[in-house]
From TrEMBL:
Active site per the UniProt annotation: H99 (tele-amp-histidine intermediate)
SUPFAM superfamilies reported in the protein's UniProt record: HIT-like
One Pfam family from the record: HIT
Any one Gene Ontology molecular-function term assigned to this protein's record: methyltransferase activity
Designated name of the protein: HIT family protein
Source species of the chain: Sporosarcina thermotolerans
Boundaries of every HIT domain copy: 5-113
Swiss-Prot/TrEMBL keywords: Methyltransferase, Transferase
Amino acid sequence: MTSCVFCKIVEGSLPSEKIYEDEHVVAFMNIMPVTKGHVLLIPKNHRENIYDMTEEEASNLFAVAPKIANILKEEFNPAGMNLLQNNGSHADQSVFHFHLHFIPRFDETDGYSSNWNPKVEEFTQDRIKEIAVQIRNRFGQE
């Protein structure tokens, strides 16, 4: 995809600060980092989101994820780390090439926040069980 910014990084026509590359994936520094060490990991093949990836592509990508996380942990000693991946504009995806964010966390003032708004009245234990059955049935499991 010639208009995809991440595809241009893969092909080398757009500069980036690559930190890792193999035949399947590329990892590079985010140009608008939230915290020190904010890295993106992408498949070299253009895949818009998780729904478009094959199991093999996902396996290749996630095989590298612990390596990146551990290097960031060793280098910067964060208190924690968020892995973030958005799928579709309603989930805040803004670059439509699958990418996994590594966001090292240092303290509550480091610039990143993930706030949950649980819907406990809507999702009772019985409703959660119904949804689990619905999903399990798609796997062919009872």
